[in-house]
Amino acid sequence: METVLSVLEEVAARPLAYARQWKEATGRKVIGLFPMHFPGELAHAAGGLPIILQEDDEPITIGQSNVFNFYCGYNRSIIDQALRGEFAVLDAILFGDHCVQLLGTADVIRANVPQLPILFNQLCSILDAEWAMRETQGTFRRLWHELEVLIGHPIDEGRVRESIRLFNRNRSLIRQLYDLRRAGRISLTGRQMQAVVKSSMVMDKAEHCALLEQLMAQLKARPPAPGVRVFLSGHLCHAPKLAVLDLVEECGGIVVDDDLYHGFRFIFADIDETAPPVDALAEWYLSRSKKVPCPTRAVKDLDWEDYLLKAVQASGAQGLIVLLAKFCEPHMYFYPEIKAAFEKRGIPHLMIETEHEEMPIEALKTRLETFMEIARRRAAA
């Protein structure tokens, strides 16, 4: 088990290095995707390697003079990587308009790396509008055509179906790990679960599935050590710092579930394998936020705080920890409603504002220890 996890952790730590090795080995194209809503299945069906572009751990240097300081750490890191030449491995970048900062990031990359194609596709943000299905189908048809132009040959519908099946298989395997962890039947740390999901965003899906199947076969039924059962929420675009995940556990917490992008939000929804591919992709996109709400999408009579209350209860969590990336406006707008809902129910919750730069770990440790003690006392009352 440790050998498989070490491979996944290495890919998660150095995603662009994996992409370079894959490209050298296959001679095929690498397509970078911005989070959160575009399916990688089309790029995979085109013969490419779709990778979700990740924040890296390097200090932001050259990129600092090309973007506002009030952009979130993810956007500033992406710009810095692009200007340092880290994205030379990419043959194109695919992005949408779910974040104003992301639009600015794409403009900076266009201006400074003009040889790198950026495929912009605007997805409908009002998911239950009467025109939403029609508009979304049109968007995915345009993306299909743009990818055909990029690779220089048609993308066969049968290949898209194969890619959908493969990606569904990958999501299903990760969901099995989530189910086992939620039920308390296995002991996987927050760091290990993040490696599983983050590596899935980067690796060739067939290779990743093979590693997950090895991991499932090697896992032993071992309940986690006693602790405060915690639900993690937030971080809509990039992975939480491993130091923060480690500290939650060091202070007595056990993460039993989450709605992180580098977590359950990425793997919970499959695509219909029987419907016409464009229709299936459109339905997948439009239904995702109806199941796990996203603050960048709008659905009538659906609130993130209501989802979180139910999810925390269903997982048996004793408290909620919200990881809010500094300057993430969509999350900032929703947090007051989440806070009010949990205070009304008397459920312990803690908001941690994260950033790309170093965080005050000792101060955070004090806050987490206090939160764990409150959660223990509430559970015992």
Automatic annotation (TrEMBL):
Residue ranges that the Swiss-Prot or TrEMBL entry lists as coiled coil: none
Stated name of the protein: 2-hydroxyacyl-CoA dehydratase
Species of origin: Oleomonas cavernae
Keywords assigned by UniProt, alphabetized: Iron, Iron-sulfur, Metal-binding
Keyword flag DNA repair: no
GO molecular function annotation: iron-sulfur cluster binding; metal ion binding
Family that this chain belongs to: Belongs to the FldB/FldC dehydratase alpha/beta subunit family.
UniProt keyword annotation of Iron-sulfur present: yes
